[in-house]
Design goal:
The protein is of the alpha/beta class and 285 residues long. It has one domain: NAD(P)-binding Rossmann-like Domain (Rossmann fold). The protein contains seven helices and seven strands; from the N terminus they run E-H-E-H-E-H-E-H-E-H-E-H-H-E. The protein has a seven-stranded parallel β-sheet, with helices on both faces. Helix 1 packs parallel to helix 2, helix 1 crosses helix 7 and helix 4 runs parallel beside helix 5. The longest helix is centred in the middle third of the chain and has 29 residues. The protein binds nicotinamide-adenine-dinucleotide. The site of nicotinamide-adenine-dinucleotide (NAD) has 29 residues, from helix 1, strand 2 and helix 4.
C-alpha cells in the first residue's frame, strides 16, 4: 500500500447531492454526535433538511461546533448533554427535545465505546461499561423515543412512518473479535434488540433498522489506521480497498431515515466495503 491517498475517499463523496428537502420538517436526535460517525450523521441529517439534536456526554465545545455547522444549512440544531446509559438523563433529554423541538421523528442511537482487554484480564467494570453504553444506552433512547412516536402517531405530511430508529451496530455483531468480548457481545445484543423491536413496533408504523459499519476512520479505532503498517493490515480485510469515512455512514443514515426506504424494516445495512464478505476466501480459501 502506498500511503494514505490510496484510501482517502471523501473526494467525490456525494455531500452536495443530498436532497435538502428529503427530511424537511423532521426532528432527529443523534447520540454521541460530537465525534466521528455521530457527528457526520448529524451533519448529513441536517443537510437533508432535518432539525437535529446533537447529544454529547463530554466535549460540549465540539458539540457546539456541530450545531453551528448544521444551522448553516438553515435548519434548527441544539446540543444536549446526557449520558445515554443513565435512565433519568435519557428521559430528561427526550422531554426537553419534545418541549423545544415539538417531537422526535428520527433517533440515531449511535453513542458507543470500547474498553478492550484479553479475556482473563477484562474487569467486570470494563465489561459492564461497554454493555451499559452500547446496549442499555440504545435500549433507553429507543424506549423513550418510541413513547413519543406512539403518542404522536403518523403525520403524513412529515413521513409515512410514525418514527424511525437507527441503531448503530458494527460488523462485530456477526464477526467474533478476540480481545473485545465486551464490545462484540454488546453489538450482538444490538442486533437482536433491533430485530425484536422492529417486529414489535412495525404494526405501529415505527421502523427500526441498524447500520453495521466496518472500519471507519474515527477516534475509536485510530490505532487500526494511523500507521502505514496498521493500515496495510486493515486493508487486507476490506475488498473495496479503502477505509470508510464517517460520511459513508451519515449518507446511509439519511437514506434509511427517509421515506425512500419506507419498506425497510428490521434490516441491518452493512456499510463496510465488503468486510463481511469473508475476503480471506477471495483466493480460494
Ligand atoms: P467516537 O469515539 O468518535 O464516537 C463515539 C461517541 O459516543 C463520542 O461522541 C462519545 O463521547 C459518545 N459516547 C460515549 N459514551 C457515551 C455516553 N455514555 N453517552 C453519550 N455519548 C457517549 O467513535 P465512532 O467510531 O464515531 O463510534 C460511533 C458508533 O459507531 C459506536 O457505536 C461504534 O461502536 C460504532 N462503530 C464504529 C466503527 C468504526 O470503525 N469507527 C465501526 C463499527 C461501529
Amino acid at each position: 500500500m502506498e500511503g494514505q491517498d490510496i484510501v482517502s475517499s471523501t473526494e467525490g463523496a456525494p455531500r452536495d447531492v443530498i436532497p435538502a428537502h428529503l427530511l424537511r420538517g423532521q426532528k432527529a436526535l443523534v447520540t454521541g454526535a460530537n465525534s466521528g460517525i455521530g457527528r457526520a450523521t448529524a451533519v448529513a441529517l441536517g443537510r437533508a433538511g432535518a432539525d437535529v439534536v446533537v447529544n454529547y456526554v463530554a466535549g460540549g465545545d465540539e458539540a457546539e461546533k456541530v450545531v453551528e455547522e448544521i444551522t448553516g444549512f438553515g435548519v434548527r440544531a441544539a446540543a444536549y448533554e446526557a449520558d445515554v446509559s443513565d435512565e433519568q438523563q435519557v428521559v430528561a433529554m427526550m422531554d426537553r427535545m419534545v418541549q423545544e423541538f415539538g417531537t422526535i421523528d428520527i433517533l440515531v442511537a449511535n453513542a458507543g465505546l470500547q474498553r478492550d482487554a484479553p479475556f482473563t484480564e477484562m474487569t467486570l467494570a470494563q465489561w459492564q461499561k461497554v454493555l451499559d453504553v452500547n446496549l442499555t444506552g440504545q435500549f433507553l433512547c429507543a424506549r423513550e423515543a418510541t413513547k413519543e412516536f406512539l403518542r404522536r402517531g403518523v403525520v403524513p405530511e412529515v413521513s409515512r412512518a410514525a418514527g424511525k430508529i437507527i441503531c448503530m451496530s458494527s460488523v462485530h455483531q456477526i464477526i467474533p473479535w478476540a480481545g473485545h468480548v465486551n464490545y462484540a457481545s454488546s453489538k450482538g445484543g444490538v442486533q437482536m434488540m433491533m430485530e425484536t423491536l422492529a417486529q414489535e413496533l412495525a404494526p405501529k408504523k415505527i421502523r427500526v433498522n441498524a447500520i453495521a459499519p466496518g472500519a471507519i476512520r474515527t477516534p475509536i479505532n485510530r490505532s487500526a489506521w494511523d500507521t502505514p503498517e496498521a493500515l496495510e493490515d486493515l486493508l487486507r480485510l476490506i475488498p473495496y480497498d479503502r477505509v470508510g469515512d464517517p460520511e459513508d455512514i451519515g449518507y446511509a443514515a439519511v437514506g434509511l431515515a427517509s421515506d425512500l426506504m419506507d419498506y425497510v424494516v428490521g434490516a441491518t445495512l452493512y456499510v463496510d466495503g465488503g468486510m463481511t464478505l469473508f475476503p480471506g476466501f477471495a483466493t480460494g480459501g
